Amino acid sequence: QVQFVESGGGLVQAGGSLRLSCAASGSTNSISITGWYRQVPGNQRDLVASISRDGMTYYTDSVKGRFTISRDNAKNTVYLQMSSLKPEDTAIYYCGARVIQFYWGQGTQVTVSS
Predict the structure, then answer these.
(1) Residue 21: which of 95, 74, 99, 113 has the closest Cα?
(2) Residue 47: in which H helix or E strand, if any?
(3) Closest Cα partner for 69 from 89, 86, 53, 92?
(4) CA–CA distance, 19 with 76 (Å, rounded to integer)
(5) Which residue, among 52, 47, 39, 58, has the nearest Cα to 106 in the 3D structure?
(6) Can you tell me the distance from the alpha carbon of 16 to that of 29, in angstroms, rounded to the nearest whole number?
(7) Tens of pLDDT, residue by residue, the chain (114 residues)
(8) Is 69:57 a contact under the CB 8 Å cutoff?
(9) Coil, strand, or helix at residue 35?
């Protein structure tokens, strides 16, 4: 089993920045890729960015150049640095990974005001 705890969300004005953290515990050695996802109520949960254990990254087009995903394997933590935030980035942000089944954190709310 794996547990994730996200933190760092909040309210920010458009153009501002936030850094989200995702702390993992449990069978962390079984995690190969960790992703940050976001969901607006009524919509599906979409992948925003992901990072592998060896640092390979993926970003969805809408956040390229604005968001940076990174990880500290010693701390079992994955970060999402978000800059130049836009109102359309408003969502609940989740981290998650598949270890046989998919595990999610509880999510953290990000609200960007215009």
Answers:
(1) 95
(2) strand 46-52
(3) 53
(4) 16
(5) 39
(6) 34
(7) 999 999 999 999 999 999 999 999 999 899 999 999 999 999 999 999 999 999 999 999 999 999 999 999 999 999 999 999 999 999 999 999 999 999 999 999 999 999
(8) yes
(9) strand
Say which amino acid occupies 66. Answer: R
CB neighbour list of residue 23: distance below 8 Å, 6 or more residues apart = 4, 5, 7, 75, 76, 77
The tokens for 61 are: 């087009």
Strand partners, 36: 49, 95
Token pair listed for 109 = 């709310």
How far apart are alpha carbons 46 and 69 in whole angstroms? 15
